[in-house]
Design brief:
Number of helices: 11
Distance between the termini: 29 Å
Order of helices and strands: HHHHHHHHHHH
Helix content: over 70%
Structural class: mainly alpha
Length: 259
C-alpha cells in the first residue's frame, strides 16, 4: 500500500493516526534528511565543546553549561523540517487528495508534528549520550529528569506547530527551509552558548527575557540545580502561548491555502 493511501474513516482519531504513520514512514525512507536531523546536533555539541570550550568562561565546565542550550538548538533545527514537509505537501498536490476525503487540517498537520517530535527526541538522546562522553555530569533526580523531559517535549510541540504555520505561510519548500535560520538566530541570541552578561548591553535585555533563554535556564535549573527563579513558569507560559497561537494560525492559513 502506498504511504499516501488512506482507508481510514473521515472523523475521529483514525485519520490523525494514519497520517502520523505516513509521516513517520516518510521520515524513515528519507535517509539523508533523517541523518541530518539526528547527527547535526551531535556535531554541533562536539564543535562547541572541543573548539570553544577552553576559550569561554562560564564558571563551570563548558560542556556542563552548553548541554541545555544545544538540546534546545537541536529542537529548533529539527523543527524546521516540519515547515519544509508541510510546504512540500501543499505544493505537491497531496493536500487536494486528502481534502477530497473530507479530512480536516488538524490531522494532516498533526502527523508532521508527531513525526518531528519523535525524531527530535531520538536526537536529544544522542546529544545527551555524546555529552556524557565529553564529561557532562548532571545532578538531577528522577523528578527533575521527568520535568526536563516534559518541558523539552512541550517546547518541541510548540516549535513544530510554529514551523507548520511557517510552512503554510511560505510558497515553496525552499522558502520554508529558511525557518531554520530564524530559529537558530533566536537560540544564538540567548544564554545557550554564552552567559547573557557577556553580551553587548543593547542585546542583554532581549537575550535575558526571550523564550529560548527561559527554557534553557529552566533546563539548567532542573539538571544542574542552578537557581532558575521565575524562569520555569515563564518558560511554560511562553511555550503554551506559542502553541495556542500557532495552532490557531495553522487553521487560518490552511483554510486560505485550500479555499
Amino acid at each position: 500500500m502506498s504511504d499516501l493511501t488512506l482507508t481510514a474513516p473521515r472523523t475521529g482519531l483514525t485519520p490523525a493516526l494514519a497520517l502520523t504513520g505516513r509521516c513517520l514512514r516518510m521520515s524513515r525512507r528519507q535517509v539523508d534528511t533523517l541523518l541530518t536531523s539526528l547527527m547535526l546536533p551531535v556535531m554541533l555539541m562536539v564543535f562547541f565543546v572541543v573548539l570553544f570550550g577552553h576559550a569561554i568562561s562560564t564558571g563551570t565546565k563548558y560542556v556542563t553549561y552548553v548541554v541545555p542550550g544545544v538540546m534546545l538548538l537541536c529542537a529548533a533545527v529539527g523543527s524546521a523540517g516540519t515547515a519544509v514537509a508541510v510546504s512540500q505537501d501543499m505544493a505537491g498536490g497531496i493536500i487536494d487528495r486528502f481534502r477530497s476525503m473530507d479530512i480536516a487540517a488538524t490531522p494532516m498537520l498533526t502527523g508532521h508534528v508527531v513525526a518531528n517530535v519523535a525524531r527530535n527526541l531520538v536526537s536529544a538522546v544522542l546529544v545527551l549520550g555524546v555529552a556524557f562522553g565529553l564529561g557532562f555530569r548532571p545532578h538531577a533526580g528522577v523528578a527533575a529528569w521527568f520535568g526536563a523531559a516534559g518541558l523539552l517535549v512541550l517546547c518541541l510541540i510548540a516549535l513544530s506547530w510554529l514551523c507548520a504555520a511557517y510552512g503554510l505561510l511560505t510558497k515553496s519548500p525552499e522558502a520554508a527551509n529558511s525557518s531554520m535560520f530564524v530559529m537558530m538566530f533566536a537560540i544564538y541570541a540567548s544564554s545557550a552558548l554564552v552567559p547573557v552578561h557577556t553580551m553587548p548591553s543593547w542585546l542583554r535585555g532581549f537575550a535575558a527575557n526571550q523564550p529560548a533563554t527561559l527554557v534553557i535556564e529552566t533546563l539548567r535549573g532542573l539538571l544542574l540545580h542552578t537557581p532558575a527563579g521565575p524562569a520555569p513558569w515563564r518558560a511554560v507560559a511562553w511555550c503554551l502561548g506559542i502553541l495556542v497561537v500557532s495552532v490557531a494560525l495553522c487553521g487560518v492559513l490552511f483554510r486560505r491555502r485550500t479555499s
